[in-house]
Design a protein that fits this description.
The chain is mostly helical. The chain contains 6 helices and no strands. The protein folds into 3 domains: about 45 residues, no CATH class; about 45 residues, no CATH class; about 60 residues, no CATH class.
Length: about 180
């Protein structure tokens, strides 16, 4: 048995026995093929590599993305999902992706922040029944129930939720752009 086949067989056997395929000594973590120690080493190595080669990785991903886009377009399949043929009204999307993109950009033809000025619900875009609030009855009821379930001051709960969202977004941006 040559070295390549031996490595493949060893990998299969260790995976089947749920033993780490890297060190072969410890039990593998649930759902992955590595033990905790080997997985940590791999994660640290990957992070260090990404920090050192951040720009190269970004360029490589951009090239691959463009190549995939043009290959799919040439084959006549959806450039986004790659599963279906291109829809007649679109030049690059299947019917599913076309409708998703249309909904995403159209938003009833009115930006969300401008909806109340047109007498539309701020959340769903349906006509409002009351002028004193920016939500339709259905959305207002759902929002009120959500606030009551928090069992706190609604204004404070909204501020707390927003603060958590902003903090999470900042942390995400920090990690995302850390290598710059």
């Amino acid at each position: 048995m040559d070295r390549n086949n031996y490595a493949k067989e060893r990998y299969k056997l260790l995976k089947q026995l749920k033993i780490c395929v890297c060190c072969g000594h410890q039990e593998a973590e649930p759902g992955i093929t590595l033990c905790f120690d080997c997985n940590e080493k791999k994660r640290k190595y990957s992070l260090a590599y990404q920090k050192q080669n951040c720009e190269e990785i970004r360029i490589k991903q951009s090239k691959n993305s463009k190549k995939r886009y043009y290959d799919r377009k040439e084959k006549g399949i959806c450039t986004k999902c790659g599963k279906h043929k291109i829809y007649a009204k679109s030049t690059i999307y299947c019917i599913d992706c076309y409708l998703k993109e249309k909904r995403r950009y159209q938003k009833n033809g009115i930006d969300r922040s401008e909806r109340p000025a047109y007498g539309l619900c701020y959340q769903c875009g349906k006509p409002k029944e009351r002028e004193d609030i920016s939500l339709c009855n259905c959305c207002h009821k759902r929002s009120s129930e959500n606030m009551k379930s928090l069992n706190t001051n609604p204004t404070q709960a909204m501020l707390d939720a927003r603060e958590l969202y902003v903090k999470g977004f900042r942390d995400f941006k920090k990690v995302l752009f850390e290598c710059r």
